[in-house]
Specification:
Layout: H1 4-18, H2 23-38, H3 41-55, H4 63-76, H5 79-91, H6 97-113, H7 116-133, H8 138-149, H9 159-167, H10 173-179, H11 181-201, H12 212-237, H13 243-261, H14 270-300, H15 303-314, H16 318-335, H17 338-355, H18 360-374, H19 382-391, H20 395-418, H21 421-429
Helix pairs in contact: 1-2, 2-3, 2-14, 3-14, 4-7, 4-13, 4-14, 5-6, 5-12, 6-7, 6-8, 6-11, 7-8, 7-19, 8-19, 8-20, 9-17, 10-21, 11-20, 12-13, 14-17, 15-17, 16-17, 16-18, 17-18, 18-20
Length: 432
């Protein structure tokens, strides 16, 4: 085994990241440096360019800009406020009810937009002031909001599951979408249990029981937003359209809802919304292209094969292997954002788990759950920064209420790791 290219790849990448070079450029430069040690210099540059170009030449990736645009329209279109009203009508009467409302609203909004950042921003801006006004601690409100926002990465539609499908070599996006429902709901329930205990101990207030007529009115106001789930996921499962086509349908539906029905988005605001969606998409696509080149050089140097051999020498128990990978991914999530982590580590770990008979769909959900926890941890927790910024609090202040919520998320992760049927039952039921 030639360790030199592996050392060059790892050292170059971590050195560039440590110097503050953007992650896409760090991945690309580390890949080219490693290629220079393995193949001819001119061929290295040509190969890197070709692999990057072919890496983003994928019909499935077209879903990402569409879902990004749909998320931007939802964020501005008054959908969050209607979902919060509906969630409060259902759960506000319980002790600490606004914490439950925050979690349920985040799950609903995240499952519609597919973006944790959009969920943390939209729901946090609505729920944060309301919770503080009714006597909740600001740091507790922020902690609940930012952890609940990650459920939108697991409950479909989810951009990160599309990226995992690409990195895994074409795992069914529909199967991944279906597999995300029960684990996402499990995380939400775990967060509700923990938040309920914290609210009870903190003696947080509860709202009065609303009459059925009010609950039905809130439901009807939120129904057009909730119906998007039926349109997108129902259409995919029924075979009416692909995930990419569903994303385009989501854009059309949210445009009609936000601009023509709710009238929260003005025509004059559309160019700015399009620009933000395009900017975010360009970042993701550059990252995908660079990561595809890194995956190619790792395969060329047989790195996944060597990692498989090393892990199998430690244990042949599939559960123990998954637990070891969980620990590694939880550590990675502390220092690396989700998309690059999925693109880099899927080609390394997927051969290990498939060698042991673990379903790639099940492993994809485990990976996303691990890295979702990383989004809430410093120093590179994207959602942690968004949640604190929206709530007007600091990372230091929010850490203490976050710790019990971390525990709830990790328990949910362990249950999904141990019991594969939690993620595989729905895909199996629908024949995927």
């Amino acid at each position: 085994m030639d360790w030199f290219p592996i050392v060059v790849l790892a050292l170059t990448f971590f050195l560039l990241v440590g110097l503050g070079v953007p992650i896409s450029f760090s991945i690309g430069l580390a890949t080219v440096a490693t290629m220079l040690t393995s193949i001819a210099p001119l061929a290295s540059l040509t190969t890197a360019a070709q692999v990057m170009a072919t890496g983003i030449d994928s019909f499935a990736l077209l879903a990402i800009p569409f879902f990004m645009l749909a998320g931007e329209l939802m964020n501005k279109g008054g959908i969050a406020a209607r979902l919060v009203e509906f969630a409060k009508a259902l759960l506000g009467a319980f002790p600490g009810g606004l914490a439950y409302v925050n979690i349920l609203a985040s799950m609903l909004f995240g499952s519609i937009s597919g973006s944790a950042a959009a969920s943390a921003s939209a729901i946090g801006s609505v729920m944060g002031p309301r919770m503080v006004k009714e006597g909740y601690e600001k740091n507790f409100s922020a902690a609940v909001n930012l952890t609940a926002a990650t459920t939108g990465l697991i409950i479909p539609p989810s951009n990160i599951l599309i990226i995992y499908s690409l990195a895994a070599g074409g795992v069914s996006i529909t199967a991944l979408f279906l597999a995300g429902y029960l684990p996402g709901i499990l995380i939400g329930v775990s967060l509700m249990l923990v938040a309920g205990i914290m609210a009870y101990r903190g003696k947080y207030p509860k709202s009065g029981v609303l009459p059925l007529k009010t609950i039905l009115r809130c439901f009807m106001r939120a129904l057009p937003s909730l119906f998007l789930l039926v349109v997108v996921i129902g259409g995919i499962v029924a075979g009416i359209f692909t995930a990419t086509e569903a994303a385009a349908v989501a854009v059309l539906y949210t445009f009609v809802l936000s601009v023509l029905v709710y009238r929260e988005v003005r025509i004059a605001e559309l160019p700015q919304i399009l620009l933000r969606a395009a900017a975010t998409t360009s970042i993701v696509m550059l990252l995908v292209g660079a990561s595809m080149a890194m995956s190619w050089i790792m395969a060329y140097e047989n790195i996944p094969h060597h990692v498989t051999a090393i892990l199998l020498t430690l244990t042949e128990n599939p559960l123990m292997v998954l637990l070891l990978i969980n620990l590694l991914l939880l550590s990675v999530g502390i220092f690396m954002d989700m998309a690059p982590a999925v693109l880099i580590f899927t080609p390394i770990f997927l051969p290990v788990v498939t060698e042991m008979g673990i379903d790639p769909v099940h492993f994809g959900i485990i990976m996303v759950m691990n890295l979702s926890i990383g989004l809430c941890t410093p120093p590179v927790g994207t959602i942690l920064f968004v949640g604190c910024s929206v709530s007007g609090t600091t990372i230091g202040g929010v850490i203490r209420p976050l710790l019990p919520l971390y525990c709830g998320m990790i328990v949910a992760l362990f249950l999904v790791t141990k019991f594969s049927w939690i993620s595989l039952w729905l895909p199996s039921f629908f024949g995927f």
